[in-house]
Write a structure and sequence with these properties.
With about 325 residues, the chain is α/β, with parallel strands linked by helices. It has one domain: Rossmann fold (3-Layer(aba) Sandwich), CATH 3.40.50.300. It is built from eleven helices and seven strands. The chain has a seven-stranded mixed β-sheet, with helices on both faces. β6, α8 and β7 form a beta-alpha-beta unit. It binds adenosine-5'-diphosphate (ADP) and magnesium ion.
């Protein structure tokens, strides 16, 4: 179980080193090799409730437990990723929204907070993100704000995971423009295929107009029910989509109520029930994601500075 960070508002930036201590009692988690250059992963789908935030929280926690330096950026005004990683919105003095709206006054490094977990930092969201679109409507370079902000800190992290809102508006476009890759979170439900073409079109548009290097690196299947034929059929249908061929992760995340219980307690599932299928699946999925960068040598960049928040509360495989 992670411990709460000590309250501190000194403004002095802490420099957490890569942690060697076991992250989860009862689970032996082997360190994995870091990517050569940091991977900036936007977890996207304009559908709400398909498991984006749950995936961000639990992949981030798993990668951090494997010794990777991880930054989570919460672009959703509901701030579920911020809170799900044990931070209280009461402790957020500056959020990612401030960075996007006024980058001269707020850098990304200013807003990054330590989470209660080793190697895991958070750029918290805020309710104001819901107004970002209208407030930034006339700003020049509004699609580039996140990309520029991340450029200042990216070398300090192995993985930057961006949680996106349930829309394809300016915040999601910022995420796709800033990312080196996108992972699509998709519930194994018949309605999941509706709107998938719109998401793929948006990704294509961003590739054409803003970020030619962006690639779709994976489809994360969530809430999979191994007992139903329909779950399997949906996965098969997604696998057959030309632009997603070979992209659907072998590990699917099964339905598991422990994931919801853990998010209610505002912690990654591996710190709530280390042996449940949710922990097992997200750990396995994270290994798969980490293995995508296996060919790259270890990064040598020092750990990033982050402030302590003033207080914190702290497998399934397809055939
Ligand atoms: N594999 C799963 N099994 C059961 N419930 C899940 C699973 N993944 C997510 N959930 C639950 O589904 C709801 C929506 O998930 P969430 O990650 O918030 O979706 P999104 O961020 O796409 O809106 C949450 O209550 C979450 O706890
Ligand atoms: Mg969400």
């Amino acid at each position: 179980m992670a411990t709460a960070s000590k309250p501190s508002r000194s403004g002095a930036a802490a420099k957490p080193a890569r942690s060697a201590k076991p992250a989860t009692p009862g689970l032996k988690i082997k360190p994995v090799e870091s990517p050569k250059t940091s991977r900036i992963i936007a977890i996207c789908n304009q559908k709400g409730g398909c498991g984006k935030t749950t995936s961000v929280i639990n992949v981030a926690a798993s990668l951090a437990a494997m010794g990777q330096r991880v930054l989570v950026i919460d672009l959703d005004s509901q701030c579920n990723a911020t809170q799900g990683l044990g931070l209280s919105l009461d402790d957020v003095e500056e959020s990612i929204c401030d960075v996007l709206l006024d980058p001269k006054a707020h850098t990304l490094a200013d807003v990054i907070l330590e989470s209660p977990y080793a190697n895991l930092h958070v750029a918290p969201g805020s309710i104001e993100l819901s107004e970002y679109e209208s407030r930034a409507a006339t700003e020049i370079g509004r699609e580039n704000r996140l990309k520029k902000a991340i450029a200042q800190v990216r070398d300090h992290y192995d993985y930057v995971l961006i949680d996106t809102p349930p829309s394809l508006g300016l915040l999601s476009v910022n995420a796709l423009n800033a990312a080196t890759e996108v992972q699509i979170a998709m519930q194994s439900h018949p309605f999941a295929l509706d709107g998938l073409h719109l998401l793929l079109e948006t990704i294509e548009l961003v590739q054409e107009e803003l970020n030619p290097d962006l690639k779709i690196s994976g489809v994360i299947v969530t809430m999979f029910d191994p007992r139903t034929k329909i779950s399997r059929e949906i996965v098969d249908e997604v696998c057959a989509i030309a632009s997603l061929k070979g992209k659907v992760h072998k590990t699917v995340v099964r339905q598991n109520v422990k994931l919801t219980e853990a998010s209610r307690l505002r912690k990654p599932v591996m710190y709530y029930d280390t042996l449940c299928s949710g922990s097992e699946d997200y750990l396995q999925l994270s290994k798969e994601i980490a293995a995508q960068s296996r060919s790259q040598p270890v990064s040598k960049t020092p750990a990033a500075p982050a402030k302590k928040p003033s207080k914190t509360n702290t497998s399934s495989t397809r055939a």
